[in-house]
Amino acid sequence: MSNMTDTPEKTSVAKPKIKHDWYQTDAQVVVTILLKNAPADKVKVHNGDRSLSVSAPLPDTDAEYSLELELAHEVIPSMSTHVVSPSKIEVKLRKKEGLRWAKLEGEGNEEKIKAIPQAVIDASGPPAPPKIYKKDWDKIEKEIKKMEEEEKPEGDGALNALFQKIYGEGSDEVRKAMNKSFVESGGTVLSTNWSEVAKDKVEVKPPDGLEFKKWDE
Questions:
Q1: 5, 69, 89, 184: which has the fewest Cβ within 10 Å?
Q2: Are 85 and 171 part of one and the same domain?
Q3: Is 134 inside a domain boundary?
Q4: Is residue 14 part of a domain?
Q5: What is the three-class DSSP state of 127?
Q6: Kind and range of the H or E run holding 168
Q7: Alpha-carbon distance 3 to 60, whole Å?
Q8: Cβ(115)–Cβ(102) under 8 Å?
Q9: Rounded distance between C-alpha atoms, residue 202 and residue 196, angstroms
Q10: Is residue 28 domain-shared with residue 94, that is, in the same domain?
């Protein structure tokens, strides 16, 4: 009878595939690593001007997660930060230039399209109003007067227009005569002769066939 002892087979634990992604703002590039429950005190993040290195132990295993990136453009290491949460590791890289990155990794030789930093937009104030072309107001006024002169009012409209023209263009004595005669005559007389109107009160002169009466009579 053999005295051999069975040796248990070692079970290899598959290393989980950890996904990482990125997005950008005018000032930052944010790299997100979807590693859950990473111990914050053991997460190591190092980045140079054009590189990023992240390492962390994988929970419940002896393995370690590692990410090494050669960045497409330069960043400012001293202004870059990272945050570890239960669901992910987030690394915020401060851009050295306000460029719009076409990709996260690579030589960065593609055409550089400069983005406008938000601080510059805020400091510049509201956008300038659209250009307004200067109008020739003298010309417009002449055109309005021409249109008014071409209009031919009839009846009471024509009479009122005539009175307005006389009053507007008349002298102070003409205006005084018109006001005094109109008020004192109860609206039945409208004279422009101040020398005549000034002598005495203007009497009421109702149209033929009509009798003038006050409201209280």
A1: 5
A2: no
A3: no
A4: no
A5: coil
A6: helix 156-169
A7: 36
A8: no
A9: 9
A10: yes
Q: Does the residue 188 lie in any domain? A: yes
CB-CB contact of 32 with 92 (8 Å): no
Nearest to 187 by CA among 204, 170, 207: 204
CATH code for the domain in which residue 99 is found: 2.60.40.790
pLDDT-flagged residues of the chain (< 70): 1-16, 107-138, 140-141, 144, 147-163, 168, 170, 187, 204-217
For 73, the domain range is 20-105+112-123
Let me know whether 118 and 48 are in one domain. Answer: yes
Is the separation of the CB atoms in 48 and 62 below 8 Å? no
Terminal CA-CA length for the chain: 150
180 located within any domain = yes
- Which ranges of 12-155 would DSSP assign to H, the alpha helix? 118-123, 137-150
Q: What is the Cα–Cα distance from 48 to 125, expressed in whole angstroms?
A: 36
- Residues 189 and 117 both lie in one domain: no
pLDDT tens for 63-112 read 899 999 999 999 999 999 999 999 999 999 999 988 899 999 886 554 45
Q: Which 3 state secondary structure label does DSSP give 173?
A: helix
Q: Which pLDDT score, from 0 to 100, does residue 130 have?
A: 53
